[in-house]
Amino acid sequence: MKPSWRKAVVERGSGNGFVLSGAGFCELLTAALEKGKTFRFKAGGVSMSPFIKDGDFLTVAPFTGGRRPRLGDITAVKSRVTGNLLVHRIVRLDGNTCRIKADNMPVPDGLFPIDSLLGFVSHLERDQRRIHIHPGVGNTLVALFSRIGLIPIPLSIMKPLRFVLKFR
Amino acid sequence: MKVNVDVAYRPSENIVARKIHGNLIIVPLTAGVGEVDDDLYTLNETGEEIWDLLDGRLTVKEVAGQLAGRYESSPEEIEGDVNELVGELLRRGILV
Questions:
Q1: Whole-prediction pTM value?
Q2: Cα(B45)–Cα(A133) distance, rounded to whole angstroms?
Q3: Could you point out which of A30, B9, B51, B86 has its C-alpha 20 to 30 Å from the C-alpha of A104?
Q4: Is residue B28 part of a domain?
Q5: Residue B1 included in any domain
Q6: Do A5 and B81 touch (CB under 8 A)?
Q7: Measured between CA atoms, how close is A163 to chain B, in angstroms?
Q8: What is the C-alpha separation between A128 and A134, in angstroms, rounded?
Q9: B96 in any annotated domain
Q10: Is B68 part of a structural domain of the chain?
């Protein structure tokens, strides 16, 4: 016996109760970046605090047009362990591999082939302000501090640095 | 949006669609930006069945015809429903 037809419905947002996260989210982001598009989403967690705060909106852009990964970039990469998306900092570049680490975590995520990096955070939005993340001295310094364990930076140092790093 | 039942529509290049945890998720890449926070679309089971057939090879009429063979309901009801969904997806730029 054939089943009865149920009306087809398209819903906007995650109104049907599922939560988009983990490997599935990573898959969507990868698909967008592979098309050369950018991808905007809300950050969750404190692993990159204070540079990325819980609830910031991040825009991830693909490495295209000659833009290569640089020391200090906040990059998007798929975790080899969980398959989830990591948005952490490049703290060492070494030939065709790089070391990724969350600013607020003591242990690096490990070594990743450069080719496995999905994209980089080009800017973020916080409190209706758009903050561009330019590669430069600020990001390089953060990467070096993070690599030798000086991150998270004590607040007393962080306040003067915020003008260089363009974060508040 | 007006649907031409003799046209074979297909997913736009400006979306990404994936089946995740059993749900079809469609994210429009508006002006190059996919906004996952609230600008994503999901289809119910019947909608997914229609979506799977909208690959640019079958016309809307043919899609409805295939589905009519699988269900007990009247072909008119199914065709009307397919047209409605296709119109909605065209209006949102998800199909072209």
A1: 0.80
A2: 41
A3: A30
A4: yes
A5: no
A6: yes
A7: 28
A8: 19
A9: no
A10: yes
Q: Closest chain B residue to A42 measured between Cα atoms?
A: B37
**Whether domain A22-165 has CATH 2.10.109.10:** yes
B18 with A24: Cβ contact below 8 A? yes
CATH at B84: 1.10.10
B43-84 pLDDT, tens digit per residue, is 999 999 999 999 999 999 999 999 999 998 899 999 999 999
Longest Cα–Cα distance in chain B: 42
The partner residues of A12 in beta bridges, in order of sequence, read B41
CB-based contact B68:B79 (threshold 8 Å)? yes
N-to-C CA span, chain B? 12
The span from the CA of B3 to the CA of B88, in Å, is 9
ipTM tops the 0.90 cut: no
Domain locations in chain A? 22-165
User: A17-49: per-residue pLDDT in tens?
Assistant: 455 667 888 888 999 999 999 998 888 888 998
